[in-house]
């Protein structure tokens, strides 16, 4: 039984709102930065699968991927700068 299944309806809605809030604000991780060839802190703002990731690094948004083999994100700050900083280039979702 998952955590959400064990909650009543009111608690489940509250939990969903917390999860949605966390998603809209993003979460911080250490990710491989292409130009640095090393890890640095980034904020993952949008993740819709492993190949549809938008990350913010030094105040600029870039495309990124999640590499499941090494369990880390890879941010392409050389060629992956987003022309429209508020929309995902793959799915078109608005990113606040």
Polypeptide structure, described:
The chain is of the alpha+beta class. It has one domain (26-96). The protein has one helix at 9-25; strands spanning 27-33, 38-47, 53-57, 60-67, 72-75. A five-stranded mixed β-barrel has the order 1-2-3-4-5. β1 (27-33) and β2 form a beta hairpin. The longest helix has 17 residues, at 9-25. It is globular and about 30 Å long. Mean pLDDT is 81; it is low at 1-23.
Question: What is the topological layout?
Answer:
Blueprint: H1 9-25, E1 27-33, E2 38-47, E3 53-57, E4 60-67, E5 72-75
Parallel strand pairs: 1-5
Antiparallel strand pairs: 1-2, 2-3, 3-4, 4-5
Trace the largest sheet across and list its strands: 1-2-3-4-5
Tell me the distance between the termini: 33 Å
Provide a count of the helices: 1
Mean pLDDT: 81
Secondary-structure-derived class:
alpha+beta
Count of DSSP strands: 5
The percentage helix is 10-25%
Task: Give a short synopsis of this structure.
By secondary structure, the protein is an alpha+beta fold. The protein has one helix at 9-25; strands at 27-33, 38-47, 53-57, 60-67, 72-75.
Observed structural traits:
single chain; 96 residues; alpha+beta; 5-stranded mixed β-barrel; 5 strands; disordered N terminus
């Amino acid at each position: 039984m998952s955590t959400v299944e064990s909650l009543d309806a009111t608690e489940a809605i509250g939990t969903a709102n917390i999860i949605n809030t966390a998603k809209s604000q993003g979460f911080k991780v250490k990710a491989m930065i292409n130009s640095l060839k090393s890890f640095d802190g980034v904020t993952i703002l949008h993740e819709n699968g492993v190949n549809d990731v938008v990350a913010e690094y030094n105040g600029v948004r870039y495309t990124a991927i999640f590499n499941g083999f090494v369990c880390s994100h890879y941010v392409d700050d050389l060629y992956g700068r987003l022309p429209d900083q508020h929309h995902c280039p793959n799915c078109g979702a608005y990113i606040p």
